Every structure is written in C-alpha cells, then in structure tokens.
Amino acid sequence: MTDVLIIGSGGAGLTAALKAKELGASVIIAGKTYPTHSQTSMAQGGINASLANVESDSVEAHIADTIKSAQGLCDEAMVRTMCTQAPQTIAWLERLGVPFSRLDNGGVGTQTIAQRQMGGASAKRACYAQDYTGLKILHTLYDTCLKEEIEFLDEHYLLNLIVEEAAVKGATFLDIRTGEVKQIDAKSVIIATGGYGSLYHGYTTNAYGASGDGIAAVLRAGGAVSDMEFIQFHPTALKHSGILISESARGEGGYLVNSQGERFVDELKPRDVVARAIFKEFQKGLEVFLDLRHLGEAKLLELLPQEIALCKLHERIDPACELIPIKPVAHYCMGGIEVDNQLRVSALRGCYAVGECANAKIHGANRLGGNSLLEITTFGAIAAQNAVHYAAQHQVKEADEAQLTQDRHTLETLFNQEHDINFYEHREALGKLLYENVGIIRDNVQLTEAMQAVSIMQSQTIQMGLADKNPTNNTHLIDFLEFKNAMMLAALIIKAALQRDESRGAHFKIGFESANDAMFKHSITLSKETEV
Q1: Residues with a known catalytic role
Q2: Which residue, 276, 300, 328, sits at the end of a domain?
Q3: What are residue 324's DSSP bridge partners?
Q4: SS3 state of residue 332
Q5: pTM of the predicted protein model
Q6: What angle do the packed helices 133-147 and 11-22 form, to 10 degrees?
Q7: Tell me: the pLDDT tens digits for 305-350?
Q8: Of 294, 328, 362, which residue is a domain's last?
Q9: I want to staple 258 with a disulfide (CB 3.0 to 4.6 A). Which of 201, 216, 286, 434 is the partner?
C-alpha cells in the first residue's frame, strides 16, 4: 500500500508527486499515457506571477484581474492563495531548472525572467519560455521526478475508485499493455487527470485523451461536479486542424482581422469576448485571420518559434508574410470535480483533486490566460501536503477486491458485447453536436436537441461493442471507455447549461444575454444521478 496514489501524470500530478516525496511519503503516479504526452505541453503562452520585471504590477492586481474574469463565480480566498504564492512557485520552478526566457536587465534570479501580457491582464505578468512554456515546465518536472526515483505506472487506464464507507482506498486500472485489470491500494488518492475538452472531438485544441476519465470516476464513486457548463473556447486555433496558436502571438502584438482586412476586437480582451467577436464575424459570412506580418521574421523566430513551425506544418503558410486562418475551438474546462478549499473531493474522504479536472473556484466563468499553469503547480503542492497529512493521520486497511472483481467482469462482458454500431462515428457526431449546440453561443432549443441526441447515443451503447477482441494494447477498448465517460459528462454539461438562463463568461445564451446575479451568481453542482 502506498501513502499517496496520484492518478494523472501531467503538470499537476508531477508537482504533487514531488511535494509528497519531499514530505517523506511513498508515491505512485499512474497515467493512461506518458507524462510528456499530457495536455500541460499545450499551455504555450506563460505562467502568471506578479514579479513586475517588465512593468509595474502587484499581487493585488493579479487577484483583481482573476476575480474580474471569473465574473462572480470564484472563491476569493482560493484566488488570493494562488496569486500570493505565484512568485514562490516561479522561484521553485526556476530552481528545478525551467529555462525561462530572460531579460538583460542586470537583475538576479527571478528578477531576470521575461514577462508578456495575456488577455484580460492589466500588466505584463506571464513568465514564459518562448512559446514552449508548458512543455518546458512539464519536462523539467518529469526529469526531477525521475531523479527522485518516483514510481510511474504508465499506460494504466483508470477504471474506478475503490470506496468503502465513503472513504477512497485506492483505484482499479487496466494495464493497457498486458490487458490485466489491477488494484492499487493507497492511504490517500489525488486525482489529476485533466479536463474534458476532447468531448468536442474535431473542434478542440485538446488531445483525444482529455476525456474526463477522473471526473467520471469520481461521479461513479459518489462525488459531485460543478460549473460544467463553462467551456473556454480559445480564439485562435488553426482553421483546418484545430491546432492551438498561443495567446502569446497576440500578446506580442498580433492582430485579428476579417477577410475585409478590418480589425474588429481588442485582441487582449478576455478569451470569451474575443471568441464571441470572431464567431459573429463568421455569422456575417466573413473569415478571420491572425496577422503577425508586421512583427517581422526575426522577432517571430525569437519569441514564437513553435507557432511559426505549426503554421508551416499544418497550414502550409509562412506567418512572416501570410495571414493565418483561424477559428475558436474548445480549449479549457473551468468546471470539474467539486472540491473544498483543501482540494478535498466532496463526499469522498481521503480523495483530493487538482488541476483542470477539479473546480477549485479559481477560474469561475472564464479563465485568464497564464493562470492554468499557475494553478497546477501551486495547488499541486497544496493537494500533496493535504494528502500526505491525511495518510499520516489515518489508519487505512487494504480494501477488499469487490471493485476489482466487478471491473474484470465488466470488461469481459464488453468483449462479448455485439458491435452493430460503430462508436467512432458517434464520437465524431458528439463532437460536432457539442460544438454546434453547446458551443460559443447557445440557446435553449439547441441545448434541448443536444440532450435528446446524447440520450439516444447513451441508449445505443449496448450495440457499440468492440470489433477488436485483442486483450493487449487494445486502443479500441480505451477509446470506447473514454467515449462512455464522454457521454456521461456531455449530459451534465448540457443539463447545467440548460439551467443557467443567463449569460456569464464563457456561457452565452440567446434570450438571456445579461448576467442575472439574483438567480445565478453561484455554481450549479450536479451528481451522477441528481442535482445537489
């Protein structure tokens, strides 16, 4: 039995592992893929901290910007904790070896870290490593975990949490390589499995694996979720591939123009505002482009090398001399597992959640660019501290094998299930349905149609078996399990969106174009079966 079982090997999970190990706990990290494949690598633009290296800034300004963007749905105490600890988080990352871009300003240590402005920020606050910030942080954390000899169980797909008397005592996993169903007993568990952006399949910057598996497992175990309706659509993804073009491109001075060559929005407004402005241009029959030509090739190669490479690879264009065709796509999930201010999962003792899978009440209705990397590193450490403390204070006996036996039987049944319907076609259809009906601009008629369509899909899963019966390295099996989780979460997203008859942040509803504080200045919290 391990002291702390961390499920998810992205930035949040790796940070939690390092902190737990530092505190003397035994740690296992289980992830369905490899750490370097995690969504953390997609956070290109920067990580916020009020260092004031480039211009005047303060912790209070960072707090104010975050609260303003959240539009009434954040916990100010949690925001204050994150923003106040941000400079220390940056110092910690620097000590680990994150290669931040630097200023030639005669300073020392973190005083030399370069900073840029992100949308919704009142100052140049985002510390960056060119446009590879998340990737550099991720690799540095992973390298440090390897040096600390932390145990990794890669390619282990989470099936279910093991719960006895409302306490989480471990989890069951499918070893993808061998096909074996395993049980891992733990004194405490941290869920760090990321968001659910891949539900918008074909219309998202997220990898296929961002399917909300940890969130679904918590729901099955008796936990709750909140703010599921708030999906952030990043304004600038490549038109034909959905590949992210970082906000740093606009932070460095890029323009948004329509096909008539007109600028139509302040490029550094919050993401929900910019995404809706682009969508309205589309409704006029116009295309939208990101224009970086005026920045010059030398500056682009110095500050935005990844964006240049992505444009050349996926769009066959050179941003130094050509316009970049873009569209908004699903990028980040503000909602997730309901947790308290200690990051404890509601109704499940010994279980914590951190990162995009959790709703720590930081982002509210709209996340600020640069705050996601800050959340996973700052709160990853806090989750670890609390999990280690719980493990030390509670005598936990190993769980029985009831959940293990049940999950083995479930998979055996699935392999014998008929496969008259191709679930891959329904995965594509679900992505298109959510983008069109539960997207940037919503209305209750389309939301109701979406709920009906998802209900039909759910009823057809009994006919969506597996054509591939191989028990080892069966990617079809993983894809199908992810799809079942996606349908569960899709229904909750739509349910919450239907209930929220107002417009707030990333949730904009026709017929209810203003915020209604009297009725909806609170989170909508749901469980698997009923509203809480």
Answers
A1: 271
A2: 328
A3: 290
A4: strand
A5: 0.95
A6: 30
A7: 999 999 999 999 999 999 999 999 999 999 999 999 999 999 999 9
A8: 328
A9: 286
